[in-house]
Design goal:
Blueprint (H helix, E strand, L loop, with lengths): L19 H11 L5 H9 L2 H11 L13 H8 L1 H12 L14 H21 L6 H8 L3 H9 L1 H14 L3 H9 L3 H12 L3 H8 L11 H17 L14 H7 L6 H20 L4
Helix pairs in contact: 1-2, 1-5, 2-4, 3-15, 4-5, 5-7, 6-7, 6-13, 6-15, 7-12, 8-9, 8-11, 9-10, 11-12, 12-13, 13-14
C-alpha cells in the first residue's frame, strides 16, 4: 500500500506540538497592550529556556560587548520578535524523540541544522535584511520533516538512503523516487499544522527547489544556498550522503559576490561552537 504524506501526520504521537510558551509569547506580542515585561515574565517561568536563551544571546551569535544578564535586558537589546524566533529555535530541538539511531545521529542532525541556520543568518546579514533571526530559524528547521519520516516510515527511508548513496543522487530525489514524496512536503504540512508564518513554511518547502517558491523566494533561496554550503563543509548531516543539487538562480537572487564565501566560512566557524553549545545543551 502506498504511503500518503497525511498518513505520517495522523494518529497518536504523530505530530509533535510546539511548547505552549511559544504560543503564549506569540499571543502576547500580538496584543496591542503587551510590553517587554509581559514577555519577560513568560520566559522567566521556564528556567531551562531562560538559561539557553541567555547563553545564546551572550555567544558569538550576537557578539555584544557587554554581558546580558537577564531576559529583560535581552528583550531591550534584540526585541520581541527576535526573542520569539530564538524561543522557537531553542525549543524545537527537544520535540523529536525515538528516531532510529541507524538512520541518523541526532547530534549530527542538529549540528547540521544549527550550521545551516547560522549560514542563513550570515547571508541575510550580508544582504542587510531586517530581523536576520528569522533566517536562522528557517535554516535550523529546514529538515525536520525528515525526522518524522525516519520515525514513521524508517524502512522506506533506509531504502531511500541506500539509493541516494549507491546512485549518487540527492536524498530528496531518492525520497521522491522511493516513497513518492520528500521531507520538504512533510515539513510543509507540519509547519502548517503548527500555524507558523508562511515565510517559514515556504522556506522549508522549497529549500531544495527554490524556483518553486511563490510569495517568499528570498527566504527559500537563502536557506537553499546555506544548506548546500553546509553540506559541502560537512558540518553534521541529516542523512544526505553528498551535496544537494545547487540552483544557480538562487545564488543570483542573493546578489552577493562569490568573494564573500571565504569570509562566510570563517565567520561560521567562529560562531558555530558557542551557538551549538548553547542550543545542544537542551538536547536530551
Amino acid at each position: 500500500m502506498a504511503v500518503e504524506p497525511k498518513d505520517l501526520l495522523q494518529g497518536y504521537g504523530s505530530i509533535p506540538s510546539l511548547p505552549m510558551i511559544y504560543y503564549r509569547i506569540e499571543e502576547t506580542i500580538n496584543r496591542s497592550a503587551s510590553s517587554l515585561t509581559d514577555v519577560g515574565k513568560i520566559v522567566g517561568r521556564d528556567p531551562g529556556l531562560t538559561a539557553r536563551l541567555l547563553k545564546l544571546v551572550n555567544s558569538a551569535f550576537y557578539g555584544f560587548p557587554r554581558r546580558i544578564e537577564t531576559v529583560s535586558q535581552a528583550l531591550v537589546v534584540i526585541g520581541l520578535n527576535q526573542l520569539r524566533d530564538l524561543v522557537l529555535a531553542t525549543s524545537i530541538i527537544n520535540l523529536f524523540q525515538g528516531i532510529p539511531k541507524d538512520l541518523v545521529s541526532m547530534e549530527s542532525f542538529w549540528r547540521h541544522s544549527i550550521a545551516c541556520g547560522l549560514a542563513a543568518r550570515l547571508i541575510a546579514d550580508r544582504r542587510n535584511e531586517a530581523h536576520p533571526e528569522r533566517f536562522f530559524v528557517a535554516g535550523m528547521v529546514h529538515d525536520v520533516g525528515r525526522l518524522i519520516m525516519y520515525k514513521k516510515i524508517g524502512d522506506l527511508c533506509r531504502e531511500a538512503l541506500i539509493k541516494a548513496k549507491t546512485k549518487g543522487i540527492p536524498l530528496a530525489v531518492a525520497e521522491r523516487e522511493t516513497i513518492g514524496f520528500d521531507h520538504c512536503e512533510i515539513g510543509r504540512m507540519l509547519f502548517k499544522s503548527w500555524g507558523l508564518p508562511g515565510s517559514l513554511e515556504e522556506a522549508v518547502t522549497c529549500h531544495h527547489r527554490p524556483g518553486k517558491a511563490g510569495l517568499y523566494p528570498l527566504e527559500a533561496a537563502v536557506v537553499h544556498v546555506a544548506d548546500v554550503l553546509v553540506n559541502a563543509f560537512r558540518w553534521g548531516t541529516s542523512g544526505e550522503p553528498g551535496v544537494p543539487e545547487f540552483c544557480p538562480s538562487a545564488w543570483e537572487m542573493l546578489e552577493l559576490p562569490e568573494a564573500i564565501l571565504p569570509d562566510l566560512h570563517r565567520n561560521l566557524k567562529g560562531q558555530f561552537r558557542q551557538v551549538a553549545d548553547s542550543i545542544l545543551g537542551g538536547l536530551q
